[in-house]
């Protein structure tokens, strides 16, 4: 969890380093989350909560205009009781169906910062903290980011966990993999054999902590008010 937060903090400080004027907006952002997987996914959003999505089901998430940034991911093999308390094998958020905190790793994560600068939405997909479910992040009418590979079945043994594939930082906790300490600078934080493994399968996703700076093409930029589809196990049928 600490890894996700520091990653988002890095992204935010990167975005804030632009010498542009801040503007405020009134467009509500809509995420349409679809489950095309042959199994049930418990979709999660922080902020936003969570919902069980059986195969073919969708969840339309209208973000309040005050929401500036957040993340969307999926959870596997969950059990919740009637009060919405229980657990999941991956992506669990403190045992709650309605997430109020980040998911436990590994997760395939869609991240967004809405209208931080000049009414533009910034979105990306991160595999820095590992992978659990194939995901597409598609702005309405555009190609977006597609990460459909079955990474779990290809996952190196040392990263493999139930229902997922861990990022190397979580497993090895080294400066090199986590880009901390002696590796906490742009020139000392580069791709590793593990990040290249993830990049090979999902070339448009971030795969190590400074990837968003070294690979700016992987950040989607769309005008605020754009609708976004997040599809587990795409493609989305018309
Ligand atoms: C749901 O599970 C939680 C945690 O185990 C428990 O405290 C609560 O009483 C349960 N609720 C119901 C309705 O079973
Ligand atoms: C997850 O929830 C199930 C069903 O309530 C329970 O049997 C199991 O012990 C829980 N596992 C963990 C790790 O909390
Ligand atoms: C859920 O758990 C079962 C039993 O361990 C496993 O066969 C299945 O692949 C898991 N589902 C997902 C989506 O990982």
TrEMBL record:
Coiled-coil region list: none
InterPro entries hit by this protein: Osmotin/thaumatin-like_sf (IPR037176), Thaumatin (IPR001938), Thaumatin_CS (IPR017949)
Disulfide bridge positions per record: 37-233, 78-88, 93-99, 147-202, 155-165, 169-178, 179-189
Entry keyword annotation includes Disulfide bond: yes
Pfam families, alphabetized: Thaumatin
Keywords: Disulfide bond
Annotated family: Belongs to the thaumatin family.
Protein name, entry field: Thaumatin-like protein
Source organism per UniProt: Aquilegia coerulea
Organism ancestry: Eukaryota, Viridiplantae, Streptophyta, Embryophyta, Tracheophyta
């Amino acid at each position: 969890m600490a890894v996700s937060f520091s990653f988002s903090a890095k992204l935010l400080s990167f975005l804030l380093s632009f010498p542009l004027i801040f503007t405020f907006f009134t467009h509500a952002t809509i995420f349409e989350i679809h489950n095309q997987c042959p199994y049930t996914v418990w979709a999660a959003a922080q902020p936003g909560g969570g919902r069980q999505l059986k195969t073919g089901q969708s969840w339309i998430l209208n973000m309040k205009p005050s929401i500036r940034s957040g993340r969307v991911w999926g959870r596997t093999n969950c059990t919740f009781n009637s009060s919405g308390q229980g657990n999941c094998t991956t992506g669990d958020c403190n045992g709650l169906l309605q997430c109020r905190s980040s998911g436990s790793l590994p997760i395939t994560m869609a991240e967004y910062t809405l209208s931080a600068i000049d009414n533009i939405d910034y979105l990306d997909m991160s595999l820095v903290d590992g992978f659990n479910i194939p995901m597409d992040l598609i702005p309405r009418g555009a190609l977006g980011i597609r990460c459909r590979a079955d990474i779990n079945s290809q996952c190196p043994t040392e990263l493999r966990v139930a229902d997922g594939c861990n990022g190397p930082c979580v497993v090895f906790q080294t400066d090199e993999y986590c880009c901390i300490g002696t590796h906490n600078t742009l020139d000392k934080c580069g791709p590793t054999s593990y990040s290249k493994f993830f990049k090979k399968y999902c070339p448009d996703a971030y795969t190590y902590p400074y990837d968003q700076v070294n690979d700016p093409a992987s950040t989607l930029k769309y005008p605020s008010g754009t609708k976004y589809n997040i599809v587990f196990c795409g493609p989305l049928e018309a």
